[in-house]
């Protein structure tokens, strides 16, 4: 971890260095203290069951509320955390925060399962894998209420060890989902072996579905393939009603996207549930 930070340090003396790298270096150091300083927060985005037309789950998405730079999206700092050995700390924080939120919501009459994102770095770390199982048990999270989203890349990197870790989690009852499906070049042979329950079709295939016939063919074939393998399918990046209806007609199980809701802060979810016709959950408070 230290050696990597030093490498970046050294790079700063390169005359071709740009402002971007300098900023990256600052972020690496700042990220270390971000958790201690309570600068990380989770936003939650609803996942809709298309048969019931109701929200059944939310995905936890981390944001960094940087005191000077404002909100930094995960696309910016997750890759840095991955390269500098900080995913272990970050993912542990995310999981604990999500489980606490799960209990808090339940006490308010909000019964939703939660999906959290896990990185390739976590899958490689057998200590993390065991920690996760212990934590879920200690914090009394019903395993059936927790879904782990793992990107297709993470699995492709080292399929054998990924399949081993994932099987371990699946055997304990955790739900597993392959995120950004279609972008990670996994082979059909690997998909067959993956001990997962669900795939999430990447939003690049969904966003322009209505105007793109190739995307329709790809999504339709993916749905058929997944269903034949006994997997459930989530479409991410649903931005309009037409796409939602097309997906319903084509037997997609779940949908997520800006058409339903953007990711929102934890304390705004109750209000969203109260006002949305996509919700049968009516929270006790408010
Ligand atoms: P993801 O898991 O595929 O999450 C979906 C991303 O797509 C989110 O961006 C979400 O805001 C965005 N999105 C959702 N619906 C729509 C839509 O209809 N249109 C468009 N254009 N975008 C939509 P976000 O929150 O910036 O997260 C980006 C990625 O960062 C995530 O992709 C995930 O890979 C990673 N990430 C976020 N939180 C965590 C975390 O706690 N741990 C790990 N390991 N990765 C995380
Ligand atoms: Mg995800
Ligand atoms: Mg995704
Ligand atoms: Mg994504």
UniProtKB/TrEMBL annotation:
It comes from the Bacteria. This is cyclic-guanylate-specific phosphodiesterase. Residues 24-277 form the EAL domain. Coiled coil: none annotated. It comes from Parashewanella spongiae.
């Amino acid at each position: 971890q230290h050696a990597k930070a030093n490498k970046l340090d050294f790079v700063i003396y390169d005359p071709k260095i740009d402002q971007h790298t300098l900023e990256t270096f600052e972020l690496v150091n700042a990220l270390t203290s971000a958790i201690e300083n309570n600068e990380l927060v989770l936003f939650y985005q609803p996942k809709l069951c298309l048969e019931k037309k109701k929200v059944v789950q939310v995905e936890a998405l981390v944001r960094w509320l940087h005191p000077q730079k404002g909100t930094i999206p995960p696309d910016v700092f997750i890759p840095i955390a991955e390269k500098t050995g900080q995913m272990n700390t970050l993912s542990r924080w995310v999981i604990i925060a999500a489980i606490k939120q799960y209990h808090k919501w339940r006490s308010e009459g909000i019964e939703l399962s939660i999906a959290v994102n896990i990185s390739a770095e976590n899958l490689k770390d057998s200590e993390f894998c065991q920690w996760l199982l212990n934590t879920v048990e200690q914090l009394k999270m019903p395993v059936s209420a927790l879904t782990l989203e793992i990107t297709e890349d993470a699995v492709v990197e080292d399929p054998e060890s990924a399949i081993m870790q994932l099987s371990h989690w699946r055997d304990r009852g955790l739900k597993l989902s392959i995120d950004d499906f279609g972008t990670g070049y996994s082979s059909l042979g690997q998909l067959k072996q993956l001990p997962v329950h669900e795939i999430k079709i990447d939003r690049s295939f969904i966003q322009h579905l209505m105007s793109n016939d190739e995307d329709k063919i790809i999504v339709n074939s993916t749905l058929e393939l997944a269903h034949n393998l006994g997997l459930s399918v989530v479409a991410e990046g649903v931005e309009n009603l037409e796409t939602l209806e097309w997906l319903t007609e084509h037997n997609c199980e779940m949908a997520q996207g800006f058409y339903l809701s953007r990711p929102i802060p934890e304390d705004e979810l109750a209000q969203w549930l109260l006002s949305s016709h996509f919700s049968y959950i009516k929270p006790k408070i408010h």
